[in-house]
Design goal:
Blueprint lengths: L1 H16 L2 E8 L3 H14 L3 E8 L1 H9 L6 E3 L4 H8 L3 E10 L1 E5 L6 H7 L5 E4 L5 H12 L4 H9 L1 E4 L2 H9 L5 E5 H4 L12 E4 L8 E8 L6 H14 L5 H6 L2 E2 L5
Parallel strand pairs: 1-2, 1-3, 6-7, 6-8
Antiparallel strand pairs: 3-10, 4-10, 4-11, 5-8, 5-9
């Protein structure tokens, strides 16, 4: 009998020591920084195992609506987490990062802003402003620059529009556009100085467009345990904490409280 009790106690202790698994859906543009953030988080929370799935915000949103078993959703915009909350699929929504817009060319040592102002480009790539926050920010920047009428006409006529900002980056790297508005996170590399970044870049001042806020949602789903909810909250708290700030900056983002 005593042997059985000792076995049962050992089994219960082993069970309690197992890491709680939570599943996180993240927009593709934030996948690399999230990997770094999760590595830091798991060092501090050895009882939590974070599984990451990356994709476009739209596709991940559709999967969540259709019952995909995610516990946290990190979107590239504010709209989709808000819609999940409206549908009763999210318990809480928070801004976790603010993106930074850049005008970029894959060519080295050129003045990209001067090229834009002079209309000296064959193709200008932006994300669809109706779908992508970075596209809306790019559109607002073009208007705020008060470009000459002939340059604005050229920008419209020579425009290449991507479904999202990652596609804009692909247009430029493949030579389908010589200038474009991308996320700073596409070109800023951890441990590299701005002088070492690829191509030529102009960091767009924040005053020229609305903040590019990226929101996360703590999700509600069937089969979610109390421990998983608590682990998801711990991850959310870490992502919103000052501890996350240095990692966000290394990848070209600012903290939610930076404004």
């Amino acid at each position: 009998m005593r042997r059985w009790i000792l076995f049962l106690m050992g089994w219960l202790l082993a069970l309690s020591a197992q890491a709680e698994t939570i599943r996180v859906a993240v927009a593709a543009n934030f996948n690399a920084p999230l990997q770094a953030l999760v590595a830091e988080f798991e060092q501090q929370h050895t009882d939590v195992d974070v599984r990451i799935s990356s994709g476009s915000s739209g596709k991940l949103f559709a999967q969540i609506v259709n019952g995909a078993p995610f516990d946290v959703f990190l979107s590239a915009d504010r709209d989709k987490p808000a819609r999940l909350a409206e549908q009763g699929l999210a318990a809480e929504v928070n801004t976790y990062a603010i993106g930074q817009l850049a005008l970029w060319s894959a060519a080295d040592n050129i003045d990209v802003l001067a090229r834009l102002k002079q209309g000296d480009f064959a193709r200008l790539a932006i994300a669809n402003p109706k779908l992508a926050p970075y596209g809306l920010a790019a559109q607002q920047t073009l208007l705020a620059l008060h470009l000459p009428a002939d340059v604005m006409t050229a920008a419209r006529q020579r425009q290449v529009m991507g479904e999202n900002v990652s596609q804009v980056y692909q247009f430029i790297t493949t030579g389908n556009a010589d200038l474009g508005f991308v996320a700073l996170s596409h070109i800023q590399q951890p441990n590299l100085t701005p002088a070492q970044w690829p191509g030529s870049v102009w960091l767009v001042p924040d005053v020229l467009h609305q903040p590019i806020r990226q929101d996360l949602a703590l999700l509600k789903r069937s089969g979610q345990s109390q421990q998983q909810r608590l682990a998801a909250q711990q991850l959310r708290n870490f992502l919103l904490s000052p501890q996350a700030q240095p990692i966000l900056q290394r990848f070209g983002y600012r903290a939610h409280y930076a404004d």
